[in-house]
Amino acid sequence: xxxxxxxxxxxxxxxxxxxxxxxxxxxxxxxxxxxxxxxxxxxxxxxxxxxxxxxxxxxxxxxxxxxxxxxxxxxxxxxxxxxxxxxxxxxxxxxxxxxxxxxxxxxxxxxxxxxxxxxxxxxxxxxxxxxxxxxxxxxxxxxxxxxxxxxxxxxxxxxxxxxxxxxxxxxxxxxxxxxxxxxxxxxxxxxxxxxxxxxxxxxxxxxxxxxxxxxxxxxxxxxxxxxxxxxxxxxxxxxxxxxxxxxxxxxxxxxxxxxxxxxxxxxxxxxxxxxxxxxxxxxxxxxxxxxxxxxxxxxxxxxxxxxxxxxxxxxxxxxxxxxxxxxxxxxxxxxxxxxxxxxxxxxxxxxxxxxxxxxxxxxxxxxxxxxxxxxxxxxxxxxxxxxxxxxxxxxxxxxxxxxxxxxxxxxxxxxxxxxxxxxxxxxxxxxxxxxxxxxxxxxxxxxxxxxxxxxxxxxxxxxxxxxxxxxxxxxxxxxxxxxxxxxxxxxxxxxxxxxxxxxxxxxxxxxxxxxxxxxxxxxxxxxxxxxxxxxxxxxxxxxxxxxxxxxxxxxxxxxxxxxxxxxxxxxxxxxxxxxxxxxxxxxxxxxxxxxxxxxxxxxxxxxxxxxxxxxxxxxxxxxxxxxxxxxxxxxxxxxxxxxxxxxxxxxxxxxxxxxxxxxxxxxxxxxxxxxxxxxxxxxxxxxxxxxxxxxxxxxxxxxxxxxxxxxxxxxxxxxxxxxxxxxxxxxxxxxxxxxxxxxxxxxxxxxxxxxxxxxxxxxxxxxxxxxxxxxxxxxxxxxxxxxxxxxxxxxxxxxxxxxxxxxxxxx
Length: 811
Fold this sequence. Notes:
- With 811 residues, this protein is of the alpha/beta class.
- Helices cover 17% and strands 22% of the residues.
């Protein structure tokens, strides 16, 4: 680029010297130089892409990936390379080799040695500062895991020493088989298959430390990797002789180290960072970096008047047949990668005997099958093959297997199967069968009677659950669909009689619950739909008799609840924190639990069916939008805290009510009017235990100005009207049988100016029942009216004497 700038300066000077100067030659040189530099820069870019692509190809070989498509990369109508798509890894682009100009193109490649691919430069091994060959495979920056580390990941619970000891094998006794290393590992808790265990001994991808096999080769082992892995299975003891250990079999194949060295090799060694070479052109020279661009090494001329022709690029050609794609490198090294397809067709397997699935499908097919149908009968081992060894299986058809039950947890944490058709013969879905799996939809067969606890829990991709027509499902157990966060609709068969706690808890996108006609369900259990925040409407089936606490707790969008005609509901609870705006309580209800509608802050209307036989009214605390409510004539008690914190502005207490419990209307800050039926039977205005537990009936009703107590009242409890700051008039003139006023019953009623009492003799009263602060006008204006001739009694009685003036009641 410096040359280009210099030429521009010279050209500018020459242009300024003469208008007649012929600059065509200079312009041609300049354009030619620009074109050459642009081509070199494009070549450098393509070569770096090819280097990364080559590393991806090696990674694909390691991870048993396969190619799904090969398509041309076209530029200006000319094919310049190919786009290669893999099943697991990201697509890559490889560019054709082409003749370079004016310089030498460095030849980056790979060669295999001992099963490992290493980088080469111009046909020679690339090495680090310690003269170690640099691996082309793996990921950057991760330590290679030893065989022992991988065994621990699969559940092995023994120490490293115990694990190493197991690899020595065990003696065969009396003709029995000597235990293999794998068998001894299983005894220590290893959960993987034999194949997984053997694979672990290869080490892991990445900048792996050397695997056990590599270290064995360095010690002289001359068998193949497969032979070495086979040796680790151990051998059978014969006629009482010792079964050969893995070490002995390795020695037979040429291993020269001691037993201790062999065992040490199995620990693995720490990996070195995986390295991807990078190229750039600077000052007309090729530069190579093997440390991510921190330092660069000059490896040859890139431009120049007399440079040699550039050699072919990294990839000489890309060819394919029905089975493989072949990548030919510039040094004629050929790398073959298997091909596969998305497999739209269904792969069908019939099992003559349980546990035989692994023998019916080839390893290559296990890695490719997308859709599988199994017939016959299956066991747990077969399901392990499906869940652990078929990474691309998406659709599974089990409709024609003969199983009536499937193993518990058989698809637990399965990441592959998205769609499943369960056996027609199935009668039960086991506990945790699909928990934490990737399942997207499922059809529950007609004969299934039970869905086990947590069967589909946390299936975060499960969108569709369908029950077969005429389903005979009876029970949905605890948490069966808990946390199915994308499930939007569920239709419950009429046959279901029991849905246990948490059945659909935390189904946060559930919008619709549909019940088949004539549902047999009799109870909605705890948290059955708790925190289903998208549920806006629900119908309660007619046969439901009880709704448990928290059944719909946290359903903040639930604005409408409809009880079916002829509802048999008896006990209502469980709508805490819902977004209800109105509710109709059916005639059959005899109990509303305390927390039934607690904190339903949008609830404005409560309507009771005629002839309802409800005895105790409860369940509406903190319903801040509830302005009024008509208490049914059947009610004889208003429960403790029934309306505490509600938005009531007025309330009428019917003649049938005999008791109003503590805190019944506490902290109803907007309550202005309380009216008792003229024939009221209320005897006690209840007091509280303590301010922080249950306080007085009308505690904190700060908008209440006047109240007239019915003649039936004979007691006013502790804290009954405390903190009613606006209260001015209390009329108890009809309460001729009033016997006592509880502690602090009217404390902090700072505006109390008139108190009428009809008892002939002063009711028991404490000195602190009334508070007349010295800085308040109440001490001057407070008037107590008492029966004729009783002024002297009241003026000398504790509590009553604190009124500023005591006068007789007017007729």
